[in-house]
Amino acid sequence: MPKTIDEFNVYTTLRGKAEAQLQAGTTPLSGHWSMGVDALRLLHQLSSTPGKAQDALKLLHELQVHQVELDLQNEAIAANEQTLVEDLGLYRALYDYAPIAYFVVDPGGAVVQGNLAAAELFDVGQDALPGQRIDTFINPENRPLLLGMLQRVAQNGVRDRCLAGAVGGAQVTLHLQFQASMFPGGEHILLACSPCAPVE
């Protein structure tokens, strides 16, 4: 039985829907409802006894309502799963096809994953990003700045940023701004990287 007000409201709503479907005759056939032998025997015994026939009808009704409730719950679960799959696909597409380079790195600077813009920025395949160190993509003199920023973010959990130079595809000199924040869960850092004007 429901233990909280919210659970009771969900239960009564579900039961109301089941009752309404049974009364309207719109209950879909689930295709997987089978009544056990013991339940059938009990119903037969009750219905065969004049004084207990009404009890048999009540029991049968309760079984029908319960089955419809289960079917409705299964439909809701299937709909929720489909919504989750669609949401996951949407957010994955937003990450992969964002116009800004995104990396997920560990506090030491090892790349866990990067999006398409990140791969294009440094002229590497997206599948080649995991396992590489993020600081190897920038100029040696700027590496301590980037790694120091990652350490501060990991230790303090605050957002931080730094500027660094790099050499991109076709040996083009890049001036980059890195912005970092802790990834949910606290094990990784989300790193955004975008071109910026050179510092004079």
CATH architecture of the largest domain: 2-Layer Sandwich
Please tell me what the overall shape is. rod-shaped
- Overall pLDDT level: 81
Sketch the major β-sheet: 5 strands, antiparallel
Strand content: 15-25%
CATH topology of the largest domain: Beta-Lactamase
Which runs of at least 5 residues are low in confidence (pLDDT < 50)?
none
Helix content: 40-55%
The CATH class of the largest domain turns out to be Alpha Beta
CATH superfamily of the largest domain: PAS domain
Q: How does this model look, in words?
A:
- The chain has helices at 5-24, 37-48, 53-96, 116-121, 143-156; strands at residues 101-105, 111-114, 160-167, 173-182, 189-195.
- The protein folds into two domains: 5-95, no CATH class; 99-195, Beta-Lactamase (2-Layer Sandwich).
- By secondary structure, it is α+β, with helices and mostly antiparallel strands.
- The N and C termini lie far apart (71 Å).
- The mean pLDDT is 81.
- The protein has a five-stranded antiparallel beta sheet with strand order 2-1-5-4-3.
